[in-house]
Amino acid sequence: MPQPPGLNDAERRLWAAFPTGDTVVLGDDRPAGPLPDRIVRAEIITRLLLGAQDPSPGAVAAVRLRGAYVMGRMDISGGSVAYELRLEDCRIVEEPDFSNAGTRELRFSRCWMPGFDGGGLHADGYLSLSGSQIEGEVRLPRAQLGGGLRMNGTTITASGPEKWALFSGGLVVEVGTFIRDAHITGGVRFVGARMNGGLFMERTTLTNPGRLALDAMNMVVEDAAEFSNGFTALGTVRLRSGRFSGILSFSRARLDSGDPARMALHASHIQADELLLWPEERIKGRVSLSYSRIDLLQDHPSIWPDELYLNGMTYETLRGAEFKDRLSWVSRDKEFHLQPYEQLAAWYHGIGHDDLARKVQLAKLRARRRRLNPVGKAWNHLLDWTVGFGYRPWLAFAWFAALLALGTTVFSIENPRPVKPRDELPAFHALIYTLDLLIPLDTFGQQLSYDAVNWSRWVAYGLVTTGWVLATALIAGTARVLRPSTGAR
Q: Residues 411, 476: one domain?
């Protein structure tokens, strides 16, 4: 097809190169201004992509352009493009519009542009914005990218604090999403996205302090989700209800909400095969893992924030912390919940550490104490001191032995007086008499046969009272231990 009239020299070269897919090089760097020999009108690129020029037989037609100053709006909205578009080191004056278009491969490498509209885009190949500088919003709602999404080394700056830097909803990416070494100022929205080839954001910085740095609610990632190796989020990372069929990694990352009262990581209701929550430094802000299901959780006490919400979370394996640290881990929720303690106890029981499981149950009941009224707190303390809530019954025997020794000593010094003539009573024995006082039932007949006198009478009253308290505490504690637990799984 002959060239249309009115083309400048750069446009004529592009028109002639299109049928064979040759690259037109107008310069080796991105132009800062409209240099006459580098200007290419966007409408010419649009016409070529939409079939204004026929391809050469035996060649693959494509628009490949380097170092151009692209003027006007590249509007492919609703169109069907059968050719590859590759722009390198170009300055694109107006936002390209590929909304609801069907395309092949789209590549904007090291370009400058004021935004990109790919809402509803269907690309058989990949969309690449790698190395580009974007002063505005990248829109990809409902986009389907068959060859993947590449934004390695990309810089995006939103036009305002209330604007999204990267906005999508229902995005589907096959092959993989690669956003490594990028710098994004403003929120990134991946709500409802499906990443079938993984999500890789190593060494990327998301900056939106006090707001959402990443909103990825209901996101599904097949393979790895790597927010690791230098990934930095200054703002909230929200992954609520996400599904991760591989590893979800925050290894050597940095999480800072920008406001201690805000969530740094909101990962409640997620499902993950493995969660590696081991950033480079302590997480600044709150973290929620409530109601999540995680097969393997690896973390470390050095990174835990002051507020950590674990209620409803279940897991198969824990790694990275000692027992004493795990007790601190489950207590970092400002609101007391039974389930985190029950889950931790069940896990220790499942790996054969019944002694540690009992200690977790003890810690649970002690933590519950702060929610009780004064009477309840007193009874709670009593159960704790006497029988360890039934998890340490040996305490009751220790108390019993100490009181038995005390009573035996006292009544050996100050013998009780008989209540009847001695020939009608069994012989007095201080040890047996003390046992009768401590045991709530008159077992040996000594308590009814002898009556303590003087100051020892008060010792006898104390032993009787203590015996009843110990027996009651032992029964209550044993009943608590034997009661079926409902919160562990």
A: yes
